[in-house]
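Troubleshooting log. The previous structure file for this entry was overwritten by mistake, so regenerating from the original sequence record. Sequence copied from the archived sheet and checked twice against the printout by T.R.
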Amino acid sequence: MSQALIERLEAIIVDLPTIRPHKLAMHTMQKQTLVIVRIRCSDGIEGIGEATTIGGLAYGNESPESIKANLDAHFAPLLVGQDASNINALMIRLDKAIKGNTFARSGVESALLDAQGKRLGLPVSELLGGRVRDSLEVAWTLASGDTARDIAEAEQMLEARRHRIFKLKIGANPLEQDLRHVVAIKKALGDRASVRVDVNQYWDESQAIRGCQVLGENGIDLIEQPISRINRAGQIRLNLRSPAPIMADESIESVEDAFSLAADGAASVFALKIAKNGGPRAVLRTAQIAEAAGIALYGGTMLEGSVGTLASAHAFITLKQLTWATELFGPLLLTEEIVTEPLQYRDFQLHVPRTPGLGLTLDEERLARFARR
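Regenerated output below.
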């Protein structure tokens, strides 16, 4: 078989409308912006990946615009002309020349895996070691900020058997207001659902001490990133005293961060995100660190569309145990799609295809319609 060389890397910014405003502590999303990565190879195969962040620069160090600029100017010259089938060598080549940029890196690694899966006739999960399940339970984020509306939305999801795990975005409001909001929702849903919160670093340690205590005492199952990622000593103290498990999210911006957090005992749960680790292969290295340290796992999201969601899912279905399930609901937040077949969500689960590569095809007409000019 002749060598397949990378001929072109294309990065396309796509703006898609959402079903409702999505309120986080640092930003309210009115739409979602994806960067679709297309890698064309000399054997006629094209790999597709996605790099998606939240709220421009409100969440992290990369924005859709910077991701595209860096893919065009820095990643593409390093990849064009190289052997498309040797993903390990390609990613090491990028590591030597490019620091950080994990979102862009994840889009590239996902596209390379998609292409190689198509080339070999295998799902990406099999390239990552082999799946141990075919579906993943998926949480839903209640983020309207209105207690009655959030309860009604949760009831609809339970009735439709779409979600029975709910995460609440808090931190933007005064502490006591947020606590009343969360406790009221948990009281309304009772044992029919798991209720968790994500503070997105917006509490200081004094607020977190009270917040974690109240939430734990009222049946909240999990508390995500209550304080700043740079307050490592505070994270350790909270992890020791909180009655509810503490999950690290923003604290993990690389595989090396995961090792440091595990060594310090700063969290009892890790949120796995391919975008923040640098791709599906990279996120599995973080998972291995957590497993070795006895830290539980949760399949996180950057609210990616279908491409990025399936790239995450193919990695997550290879893991022995996801104690806290996943949050791969990004496509369900969108009113429009850019793939020919929507992802399959039913009976509380996302079902991961067994077709070669990621298992999806871009809808060229719709992609062109929503691509940013």
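The longest strand covers residues 6-23. Archived copy saved in two places this time.
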